[in-house]
Design brief:
By secondary structure, the protein is α/β, with parallel strands linked by helices. About 25% of the residues lie in helices and about 20% in strands. It has 9 helices and 13 strands. Bound molecules: zinc ion (2 copies).
Length: about 325
């Protein structure tokens, strides 16, 4: 019997770290990313999670798009038997070829409920499908309402053991300015990131108010980052007709190639320093269940496939994977 619970919070497109020396000329900050913004004092709730948790410098070394990124997070492997080219969005229709961490939690603790909630509908098709309940609302449904629906279900099912909360709205800031004065959430990357910090506050406050914090692990992860201030962002911006003067303040999406180079806007050319924007994902472990001696740890180098095995390790779940738990590293 396990008396620990897991809340898995997936924030789409959230870069966790950024290349040294790559900074936005508009904000005078590194381009939006968790570690850089936290250092600048802009993300108090991520900061609290890093201080009272484990921060992992993590990379997606596979395909940096949403369906593949989610698959790596949920399965702990880059390789599954899926035929290349098959759209992983439709994995459930075709059948999963690898057990997911949610399924493994249910197999190990059949008495604990497993559910998932997301502000986009694709998650219903497989890699994050819950067992007792799966709710995915279409087309960037409100992150706020998605969270409220998850909270409501948890209050009605206090015997929950694993809940997945996937928030997609940050991914709307795919082709947009990095910073616009007074922009609303979803209109630029800067304000969207500040909003994610408030959602993190909401999740943590909810767990604490319900008295669940002390026996819950909170795993925060993301599937990919995005191109900003690199050769790919500049080339894409030009192709889309973004004015030359605005290219330094333009985030393109997270298309391939994922290996890219920091752009020098003064010389108007690529440098030879790797940026690799899309590969810079997020991974933080916090929550009251995390042993105190783990607080404040920093893991210098890990991969996205280490996310699921870390959950398995924390929860005492036997799980076949190519990744490794970061708890003992
Ligand atoms: Zn994504
Ligand atoms: Zn890039």
């Amino acid at each position: 019997m396990n008396n620990k619970r897991s809340l898995i919070l997936i924030l789409d497109m959230l870069a966790g770290h950024w290349a040294e020396g790559s900074e936005s000329p508009v904000t005078r900050l590194p381009y939006p990313n968790v570690k850089g913004y936290e250092k600048a004092g802009l993300l108090p709730n991520f900061g609290d999670s890093i201080k009272n948790g484990i921060y992992v410098n993590v990379w997606n070394m596979g395909n940096c798009n949403t369906p593949y990124g989610q698959k790596y997070l949920a399965s702990g492997t880059y390789q599954t038997d899926s035929a290349p080219g098959i759209d992983p969005y439709w994995s459930m229709v075709r059948g999963l070829d690898k057990e997911t961490i949610l399924q493994a939690c249910k197999r190990t603790y059949p008495g604990g409920k497993v559910a998932s909630f997301g502000s986009d509908a694709w998650m219903q098709t497989g890699w994050w499908k819950g067992v007792e309940c799966t709710m995915g609302w279409g087309s960037y449904y409100s992150d706020f309402l998605t969270s409220q629906n998850a909270f409501h279900w948890m209050m009605g099912n206090p015997d929950w053991s694993t809940v997945l909360l996937y928030l997609a709205q940050y991914d709307m800031t795919g082709n947009c300015p990095v910073y616009t004065e007074g922009a609303e959430y979803t209109k630029d990357k800067h304000h969207s990131l500040l909003q994610l910090d408030r959602y993190l506050w909401m999740v943590k406050t909810f767990l604490k108010e319900q008295g669940w914090w002390d026996d819950t692990y909170l795993f925060i992860g993301s599937d990919h980052g995005c191109h900003v201030g690199c050769n790919v962002a500049v080339e894409e911006g030009r192709e889309r007709g973004v004015a030359e003067a605005d290219l330094a303040n333009y985030c393109s999406n997270h298309q391939s190639p994922y290996d890219c180079y920091i752009w020098d806007f003064e010389k108007n050319q690529a440098t030879d320093k790797r940026s690799d924007c899309c590969r810079r994902t997020t991974f933080i472990v916090t929550g009251g269940a995390l042993p105190r001696e783990q607080y404040g740890r920093v893991v210098g180098n890990a991969e996205i496939i280490d996310f699921a095995p870390t959950i398995a390790d924390a929860m005492g779940v036997d799980f076949k994977t190519d990744g490794k738990s970061i708890l003992g590293r």
